[in-house]
């Protein structure tokens, strides 16, 4: 008698971990992400981004070139460092973020969102002695956002890959909202752009995890130029 083998399904992420990751990815998280466009507003003004297609391509490039090769790769390492209690390693990674921000507004963004994430974690885990100790270590750095996000992801107990999915989708949603506020794009166009980014996020997470220490980089000269131009842009909505 022939029997049909049932495919083995991957173990489901515990509901508590999944909900905490969704929480971390939410634009409603009070860390100020909505107030930054990370060069997008300047690109619309100075680089001719004038259509849905152009914005989608620009954000996809930013996902793969700057996020996957830089902050996402760093978060993967920082999650491991937090889980091992390796504070020296955490500090080294935090310093890397500060030293590789190429303009003052990008550095200020990393610092402000890092402080806000640390404060959110402090309020969220008040009374939990073990986690409050880690939050105090974070606040003493002082923290940058990728390193603070890594600690928040550690709290969820989720695998690194899933943590990176949450980070990248939260970033993508903020960037799409920045585009909708900065130019004449409707909600449907925004959803189409977000769909393209969502499809690309898993591969970006895989790439970030696979990078060795020496392969991580923060080299995006055009983004740095646009960010520098944004610092003196006459009319603007966003802080970066």
Query: Stretches where pLDDT falls below 50 for ≥5 residues?
Result: 1-5
CATH domain class: Mainly Alpha
**Helix coverage percent:** 55-70%
Shape: globular
Biggest sheet overview: none
**Any idea of the CATH topology?**
Urease accessory protein UreF
Termini separation comes to 66 Å
What topology does this entry show?
Elements: H1 15-25, H2 40-46, H3 52-84, H4 87-100, H5 104-124, H6 129-139, H7 145-156, H8 160-182, H9 187-210, H10 221-230
Structure report:
It is a single chain. With 240 residues, the chain is mostly helical. It has a single domain, classed as Urease accessory protein UreF (Orthogonal Bundle), CATH 1.10.4190.10. Helix content is 69%, strand content 0%. It has 10 helices and no strands. The longest helix is centred in the N-terminal third of the chain and has 33 residues. The N terminus is likely disordered.
Short description:
The protein has one domain (37-230): Urease accessory protein UreF (Orthogonal Bundle), CATH 1.10.4190.
What tags apply to this protein structure?
240 residues, mainly alpha, Urease accessory protein UreF, 0% strand, globular
């Amino acid at each position: 008698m022939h029997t049909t083998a049932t495919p083995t399904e991957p173990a489901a992420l515990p509901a508590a971990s999944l909900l905490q990751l969704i929480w971390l990815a939410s634009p409603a998280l009070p860390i100020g992400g909505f107030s930054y466009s990370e060069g997008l507003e300047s690109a619309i003004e100075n680089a001719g981004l004038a259509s849905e297609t152009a914005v989608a391509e620009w954000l996809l490039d930013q996902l793969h070139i700057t996020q996957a090769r830089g902050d996402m790769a760093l978060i993967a390492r920082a999650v491991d460092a937090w889980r091992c209690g390796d504070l020296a390693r955490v500090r080294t990674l935090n310093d890397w973020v500060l030293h590789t921000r190429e303009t003052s507004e990008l550095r200020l963004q990393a610092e402000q969102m890092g402080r806000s994430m640390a404060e959110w974690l402090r309020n969220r885990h008040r009374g939990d002695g073990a986690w409050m100790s880690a939050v105090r270590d974070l606040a003493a750095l002082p923290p940058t956002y990728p390193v603070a996000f890594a600690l928040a992801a550690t709290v969820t107990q989720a695998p690194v890959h899933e943590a990176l999915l949450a980070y990248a989708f939260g970033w993508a949603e903020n960037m799409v909202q920045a585009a909708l506020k900065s130019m004449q794009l409707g909600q449907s166009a925004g959803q189409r752009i977000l769909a393209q980014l969502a499809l690309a996020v898993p591969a970006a997470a895989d790439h970030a995890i696979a990078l060795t220490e020496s392969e991580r980089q923060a080299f995006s000269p055009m983004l740095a130029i646009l960010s520098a131009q944004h610092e003196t842009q006459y009319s603007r909505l966003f802080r970066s």
